[in-house]
Structure formats: structure tokens, C-alpha cells
Amino acid sequence: MDAINLLFEGFALAIQPANLIFAAIGVLIGTAVGVLPGIGPALTVALLLPVTFKLDPGGSIIMFAGIYYGGMYGGSTTAILLNTPGESAAVVTALEGNKMARSGRGGPALATAAIGSFVAALVATVALAFLAPALVKVAVKFAPWDYFGLMLIAFVTVSATFGSSPLRGLTSLAFGLWLGLMGLDQLTGQARLTFGVPQLLDGVEVTTLAVGLFAIGEALHVASRHLYKPEKPIPVKGSIWMSKEDWARSWKAWLRGTAVGFPVGALPAGGAEIPTFLSYTMEKKLSRKPEEFGSGAIEGVAGPEAANNASAAGTLVPLLTLGLPTSATAAVMLAGFQQYNIQPGPLLFTQHADLVWGLVASLFIANAMLLVLNLPLVGLWVKLLRIPLPWLYGGILVFASMGTIAANPSVVELLLLSAFGVVGFLMRRYDYPVAPAVVGLILGPLADNALRRSLQMSLGDPMIFLQHPSSAIMIAIATIALIAPFAFKGLSRFQHDED
Amino acid sequence: MTERSLKLANRPAVVAAMVLFTVAAVTYWDASQMTARATYGMGANAASYFICLFLAVLGVGHLFTAFQTSAVDAEDADWKAIGWIALALSGLIGSIWLGAGFILGSALLFAFTARAFGRKSLGVDLVIGVAMGLIIFLLFNKLLSLALPQGPFERLF
């Protein structure tokens, strides 16, 4: 098996003491930042990118893996102990987890979340290691038109298909695509939407957009709604270990959650919310004690948390093999890779095989470290939750703007950051999803390039997209995914009228 | 009378439509100014025109929803708190603009943001902000050799 050999080489790289330290630091700061209320994994990765700027690519990517998994884990701790999920995918964890914590079972809730995350990430990372090379074999044959078709699917599924309102999702996507126009065009060198400002020639940084929308937008939103009532984290009393019954009720939920989460993440379908909700309803149906749901059922934490992590690991499949981010976190990760001049995609596996497999091996190591370090350190994370909100948000804003000026020391960049913060606030206030904007910014220019390179190869004939069955099918899927929510809406309204 | 109340209830959608139309117009104007030409296929302005169209379609979509009753009810916002955060960000931007350095800027940012979240002791928060800015500056400029903006205070180190 080729993959196994390469994976062993990856482990040989990841297990070097310096890299182990990078992974440990990544896991610790990833969890520490992820635990803070209101900070989801996407923002955790975006905020901590500057920390890894000056390391060598290998070390920084390994640290990155730790930050990513740590951020995911930290989010579930906040959801359980504080009932303020940092991201939409943790909403379901908060549902049962917070109830468990309130009834004095915070320890087992954290434990099942941690072990479930570990199991899910382990299975999903194994699946990633075996699926990725197979997918790369297909992906090297992809022509620009196939990429264009794929990106259309990603655009539609991220913004329209699964959101509460396709119109608002598409508007958010359009905002991202519009920002993606800014700067010098890669093919012709034409400046677009720069309005004569030289700092805009390089385009808009994905991290600036993500930090502005997530961190500053969130701070404005929370401040405006007076959401800073003193909410105290629920103390973790008694044993943090799970009883025999907890284990018996959890392990199947972990595996089912993983089975639901990974495929959804691996498909360019975007979002970990769907698998978490799916897993929750599934566990509720299958549970032997369905009456406990709503008042703290352990399956309701174990399943969705596993689904969330499996889906997050699943998004790495399209990210690494195709360079296609399907969630805000993946988009920020892609921006991080690009900072080290690494372009994920099929070529990455041939050109930087050591790096890819080092990353995959680090994911295993980071995952194991999380399990070993985090349960004993739970007291420390709870202390972090006690930081008064005024100082917390002050600190977040200082750190956010620090990252922005460290990457690009200019006033224009700070003005952009503030402007994105205002937009992020308005989007939150009027219920527009934020993730499609980030995905649109990073995928927009790529889609533009794929489209134009296809048309150059066909000497300007747009039929090229329909003449190749692969791209024709993908464009058809994207069209169906775009129309479906509108059609179903019409359908359900029709049924409503019937009643 | 009913129509008027409907419109008022959905004012955000109308505003969003107006913003979308404006951005579409700006994009159209920008694309019409471009000079680079492609030999085959589409030039650099094609994507601009496409996004302009996309924005315009979304604008029309927003106008349609504006006449339906299902608007999102936004709660009242505390504009004072927003104002403090705006002041906090202006503090940082002004400080960098005038060359006063990162530490002063981040101290202002920290203290005013804390004020927006209901802290009353601005002086204490300023001191904390200076300490925090100093630690971040030392950590990143010296240890990780990132170039944070320097003012007179930062040059002492």
C-alpha cells in the first residue's frame, strides 16, 4: 500500500521533537482561543495565523493542524459549560451538553465530547489518508472546465441549498465574489475595483475579511444587543469520567455521528451544521431513553460532536486534493497554505508529498494530544471562561487587529478590517450567513481563472462546458442545487395552501 | 395604509436592494473603464459584468421580499456601545496613521472596547491595554520578528 508507506514517512517527519512541540503548542493555543466564547474554529485559525508566519512551512503546518483540532475541541467546551456555541455546528452540542452540565454531569458531557471527537477525528483522518490519494488520481485529470463546474457546486451548496434563506446566502456569496474581483487580474494584469488605491492592487486578504466579519462583527453584535450579561460557566463537579452506562450509550453514537459527518464534509456540500442536526435527530430516534432528550441525554452530545469533528476532517479532503474550501474554516486554512506559497490541489501530493503526509500524520498526533492534554486541563479551560467579557472582547479586538497589521502594515488594511466588521455586524443583525462571503472571496478568482482558461482553450466557445460530460454533469448538479430550495419553498407553500 | 406599514416592516430588504444596485453600478462603471483585452474568450471585465448582473438580480430579489411580510425582526441596538467600539477602532487607526505606534493604538482599542461592554474604569483598562500591547509587541517583533508599526515609545526597546 502506497498510502501506508507515505503515511509512515509522514509520521517520521511529525514525530521529530521540534515538530511534536509545534503540534503541542498548536493544540494548546488552539484550544485556549477556541474555548473563548464567541470564537469558532474559523476565527481561531484566522487569529492564530500570524503566530505561524515566520516558522518554516513544515513546522507551521503541523502547528496549524494542532490549532485546527484544538479550536474545534475548544468550541465544544464553551457550548457545554457556557451555552454560547462559538459556531453554528456547536449549537446542537450546546442543546444537550449544557443541560447535562446544569444537572451536574458536566464532566461526562465533556468526556464524551472529547472522546467522541477523538474517535471521529481518528476514523475520519484514516478515511482522509486513504481517500485522498484515490481522489488525487481522478483530480489530476481535471481540466479547467471541470474545476469550474466543481466551484459552481461549491458556491451553490455553501450559500443557497442548506441555508435558511437562499436569497440572503447568495447575497453573502455575491459580496465575497465582488471582493474577489478587487486587485490585479492574474491573467491580464488588469486592475479591477481598485479605485486608484495602490494598497488594493494585491486584492483583499481572506484573513482580513474573516477576522473582520467574525471577530469585529461579533464584537459589535454582542455589544449592541447587551449580550454581555454576567453568565458564569457551570462548574464541573464530581468525576469527569464516564460511567459504564455512559460508555455503553456513547460509543455507537460516536460511530454513527462519524458515519454521518465525514461524507457530508468530504462532499463539496459545505457546513457541519447539517450532519450535527442529522446525528441529533438520529440519536433521538434510536435512543433507548428518548425521554432524556431535552434534559441532558449523553447520546445527544456524543453523536453531534462526533459528526461535527468528522465533517471538519472531511472538509480537508476537497481542500487538500482539489484546493476547494467548502467551509469558512477551510477557506481560512487555504489562505494559510497560500501564505506559505503552498497551493493545495492534486499537484501538492506530487510536489510536496512529504508536507501533505506530514500534515496528515500531525492530525493524528494532534488528535491524540488533545485527548491526553485536554481532559486533565479542563480546569484551566474553565478558568479561561471566567475572563470578564469587556476584557475578553478588548483582547480579541487587539489581537485581531494585530494580526492584520502584522501581515500588512498599512492603514488601508485596518480601514478594510473595520469596514468588514461593520458589514459583519449588519449581516448578523439581519440574518445573513457569513461563511459564503469568505468562501466566495477565495474561490471567486479561482473560478474566474478556470472559466477564462477554459474559454481560451476552446477559442471562446462556451459550449466547451457542456461538451465534456464531467463538467456538464457538475453544472447540472449545481443548477439543481440552486433551484431546489426555491422549488421546495414553492412546493411547501402549495401544500400549506392545500391544508 | 397597509402597504405603508408593510414597507416599513421590510425596510432592511429595500435598503439592501439599494446597496446591491449601487455596488452593481460601481462594478459596471469600473468594468467599462478597463482597457486590457483578451485574445480569445473573455477579458478581465467579463467577471465584473457577470457579478454586476448577479448583484442586480439579487437586488431585484430583495425588492420582491420587501413586499412580503416575512422580514427578520431586528432587536433594538445599543448604538452607544457601537459608538464606543467605533471610537476604539478609530483610536487604533489614528494612532497608526499618525505614527504613534502599536502599543498606544492597542491600549486605546482595548480600553474603549472594554468601555463598550460596560466597564467603567477607563484608566485601569488603559494601563492593562498598554501592558498587553507591550507584551504582544515584544513577543511578535522580537521573538517572531514580525514588523508591527513602531512609534516613539516602541523605539525605546
TrEMBL record, chain A:
InterPro entries xrefs: DUF112_TM
Name of a matching Pfam family: TctA
Transmembrane annotation, as ranges: 20-49, 61-82, 109-132, 144-161, 316-335, 355-379, 391-412, 432-451, 472-491
Residue ranges constituting the DUF112 domain according to the UniProt record: 20-438
Keyword entries, A-Z: Membrane, Transmembrane, Transmembrane helix
PANTHER family reported for this sequence: TRICARBOXYLIC TRANSPORT PROTEIN (PTHR35342:SF5)
Name of the protein this chain belongs to: Tripartite tricarboxylate transporter TctA
Organism in which the protein naturally occurs: Sinorhizobium glycinis
TrEMBL record, chain B:
Alphabetized InterPro entries for the sequence: DUF1468
Domain of life: Bacteria
Transmembrane segments: 12-31, 43-64, 84-110, 122-140
Domain DUF1468 as annotated: residue spans: 15-149
Keywords: Membrane, Transmembrane, Transmembrane helix
Pfam families assigned to the protein according to its UniProt record, in alphabetical order: TctB
Designated name of the protein: Tricarboxylic transporter
Organism of origin: Sinorhizobium glycinis
Taxonomic placement: Bacteria, Pseudomonadati, Pseudomonadota, Alphaproteobacteria, Hyphomicrobiales
